[in-house]
Design brief:
36% of the residues lie in helices and 27% in strands. Strand 8 and strand 9 form a beta hairpin. The protein is globular, with a radius of gyration of 18 Å. The strands form two sheets. Strands 5, 6, 7, 8, 9 and 10 form a six-stranded antiparallel sheet that branches. The chain is of the alpha+beta class and 231 residues long. Bound molecules: adenosine-5'-diphosphate (ADP) and magnesium ion. The site of magnesium ion (MG) has 2 residues, from loops.
Length: 231
């Protein structure tokens, strides 16, 4: 069995609908969707050791089946620059998680490379009761949340469809580069859309997928957070 099937089977066996970030990112990796490098730490010492291995700065995040929106729970700390900062953040994240939900099960704390800031894009998928797996594309933050500047296509999509999704948003000129915003690697974004289409077609039990945000660079792109929800 491949990694994706194993992860989904395991979650179903445990009665979990939301996959952990570690699981969602392992699935992304199997589908050639680029993600930030990460390691799951179980102690503050281990977190510091992993941070040394990954190189600074790093980001620490809570990994819990009971915490889906990690920053709402004070579960994300970015731009940590030393062993001491990492160990301190480790303790704070666990403390915040307990405050947020005393009974939350904790799988550990994820140590990951910090992706340099850039233009943020979002790739999503939702299983529509009528149309089946449907893909969404937009720019991060206010563009999606307030302006609803997004495009949709029913999966599976072709490369041409993916291209239309990217060029079809109103904010597309920003992706082409504008004043001090450098151009984004459109091909890298199109590839992520195509890989996501394949993933949700292969696994109809995925009811929601959210790659949010993806940092789009002049060369390449990197998924910083991945969420997958099962039916
Ligand atoms: P959640 O959506 O569950 O609150 P995220 O993993 O998306 O948690 O983290 C919240 C925010 O922190 C992200 O939107 C991003 O701005 C920043 N962030 C998280 N991980 C990284 C990373 N590896 N590199 C850079 N920024 C990150
Ligand atoms: Mg997120």
């Amino acid at each position: 069995m491949n990694e994706t099937s194993k992860i989904i089977c395991q979650a179903q066996k445990e009665g979990r609908k939301a996959l952990l970030e570690t699981e969602a990112k392992a699935i992304c990796m199997e589908y050639a969707i680029p993600v930030t490098k990460f390691k799951l730490a179980k102690t503050a010492g281990e977190a510091a050791e992993f941070a040394d291995q990954l190189g600074y700065p790093v980001v620490l995040k809570i990994v819990s089946p009971d915490i889906i929106h990690k920053s709402d729970a004070g579960g994300v700390m970015v731009n940590l620059k030393s062993q001491a900062e990492v160990q301190d953040a480790y303790g704070k994240i666990l403390e915040n998680a307990k405050k947020y939900k005393a009974t939350a099960k904790i799988a550990g704390v994820l140590v990951q490379e910090m992706a340099p800031p850039s233009t943020e894009v979002i790739v999503g998928a939702i299983k529509d009761p009528q149309f089946g797996q449907t893909l969404m594309f937009g720019l991060g933050g206010v563009f999606v949340e307030i302006l609803k500047d997004v495009t949709f296509r029913i999966a599976p999509i072709t490369r041409g469809d993916a291209e239309e999704m990217v060029t079809g948003i109103k904010a597309y000129p920003l992706l082409k580069g504008y004043r001090n915003t450098p151009p984004s690697d459109i091909d890298a974004i199109i590839n992520i859309l195509l890989c996501t289409s394949k993933l949700v077609m292969d696994y109809p039990e995925i009811s929601e997928l959210d790659l949010n945000p993806i940092m789009a660079y002049e060369k390449g792109a990197k998924t910083v957070d991945a969420r997958i929800i099962l039916e």
